[in-house]
Write a structure and sequence with these properties.
By secondary structure, the protein is an alpha/beta fold. It has 14 helices and 15 strands. The model has no long low-confidence stretch (mean pLDDT 97).
């Protein structure tokens, strides 16, 4: 099938509710940090497909693990049969998460169902009804996970009864003003207003938080914030739930991003890169949460041996290739290169990140910080034309999310940054017309 035919059938048959497209890319094959389209054009990937391809594409050890497990058995339902890869993986995951408690592991198929698991089980296990989450948070698209989310994408659908949403501490756009630490301001609002009014702590089951708020705008919270949040949780017996679906497994330059902040979660949700492209997710957390009752949160396909074998191979590769340290090093390098761009281009208001979880925010005016959303859509489109794949998000649709495969080299980083430099320069100069966007205005 040629590219035009694939695009025609995609538009005709595949539901729009599962798409956020930034440019017309038909993926035909991929290798390392590069994707080749159906016309034979190869581009560098600064997205890792929304932070899934941390190992890059076509990792031979993952391929071998999947193939040999598939030959032994292509499937087996963990609901009613045991399998060896699922218990090996459970033991490894439990050992990775800190906490002076008995750890249990639950499996799903994607990040949304992992957070849905928390939405369902945390109130059940605690006997408390309310949950707290953050405006801008993206926890998924199933009913429970969308209800926990505070992103514009889920706001369109409504939902989230009994979920109280509070501002995320954004150092670049502090909701409570610039005069004080944005983390302290949010904690003050939570403790002295929310918990004293509409969200009584004795009826609050859990707080769910992203350690770097990714789809909300790749926001790194102030250093003390998560510890402050943990203190409030401990004081009131509220569970601290950390969404590591995007940040987990080395992306932030630590195995898990919460490690940067020195907190101990009661449960962690995992997904995306976990299966190196195979659909698998997990919640790792307290026994009393995940053993609350038998058979009330099970999926027929979850924990299947092929996906678990991929996840085990992924963990092995993260260790063997030293990807946690590499993400920290390459991330520092990439952030420094983005800061150079910021000096040259007034359209860039802020660059930030942890490891290889980076954001570049565009503004029309550095003083008013008016979001430059249309400009961001054009930069991303133009970068695609020039040979770079990168996406954007943010609650104002003006933050480029830069999440390359963790295996990316500095030479590849330089190549991508040169393309961004050119694309941003052309958009700034007014050389990229609005018409190029057509159907590709993203979120
Ligand atoms: C932090 C976070 N949690 C959960 C999800 C949902 O994951 P999935 O799309 O695999 O269901 C995402 C997806 O972007 C995410 O970024």
């Amino acid at each position: 099938m040629d590219t035009a035919k694939i695009m025609e059938l995609d538009a005709k048959y595949l539901a729009s509710v599962m798409k956020v497209r930034f440019f017309p890319l038909v993926i035909a094959s991929a290798d390392g940090c590069r994707i080749t389209d159906a016309r034979g054009v190869t581009r560098l990937d600064f997205s890792a497909g929304w932070a899934v391809a941390n190992l890059g594409y076509g990792n031979p050890r993952v391929r071998e693990a999947v193939a040999s497990q598939f030959v032994r058995t292509s499937f087996g339902t963990l609901t009613s049969m045991l399998n060896e890869p699922s218990v090996q993986l459970g033991e490894r995951l439990a050992a990775l998460i800190p906490g002076d408690y008995d750890h249990k592991v639950w499996y799903g198929l994607h990040g949304s169902d992992a957070n849905d698991c928390l939405a369902k089980l945390v109130p059940l296990a605690t006997g408390r009804r309310r949950m707290i989450s953050f405006i801008g948070g993206y926890h998924g698209q199933t009913a429970g996970s969308a209800g926990l989310s505070g992103h514009t994408a889920q706001a369109k659908a409504g939902g989230g009864a009994n979920v109280i949403k509070i501002p995320y501490p954004d150092p670049y756009r502090p909701v409570f003003g610039a005069g004080r630490d944005p983390g302290d301001a949010v904690l003050d609002y939570l403790e002295n207003y929310i918990l004293r009014t509409i969200c009584p702590p004795e009826d609050t089951a859990g707080v769910i938080v992203e350690p770097v708020q990714s789809d909300g705008g790749d926001i790194v919270p102030p250093p003390r914030f998560l510890q402050g949040l943990e203190r409030v949780c401990r004081q009131h017996g509220i569970m601290l739930l950390i969404d590591e679906v995007k940040t987990g497994f080395g992306r932030s330059g630590r195995m898990f991003a919460f490690e940067h902040f020195g907190v101990v979660p009661d449960a962690v949700s995992l997904g995306k890169s976990m299966g190196a492209g195979m659909p698998i997710s997990a919640v790792v957390g307290r026994r009393e949460l995940l053993d609350v009752a038998p058979a009330i949160n099970m999926f027929t396909m979850a924990g299947n041996p092929v996906a678990c074998a991929a996840a085990l191979a992924h963990l092995d590769e993260v260790d063997r290739l030293g990807l946690v340290a590499q993400a920290a090093r390459t991330g520092d390098y990439l952030l420094a290169r983005l800061r150079e761009l910021q000096h040259r281009h007034s359209l860039i208001g802020d660059v930030r990140g942890l490891g290889l979880m980076l954001g570049l925010e565009t503004v029309r005016d550095r003083t008013t910080r008016q979001p430059a959303d249309r400009e961001m859509a054009k930069i991303v489109y133009r970068a695609f034309e020039l040979g770079l794949i990168v996406f954007y998000g943010g609650i104002y649709s003006n933050v480029m999310e830069i999440t390359p495969p963790l295996v990316m080299t500095e030479a590849e980083v330089d190549e991508g940054v040169a393309i961004l430099d050119q694309a941003i320069g052309e958009v700034e100069a007014g050389d990229v017309s609005d018409e190029v966007l057509g159907d590709y205005a993203g979120w």
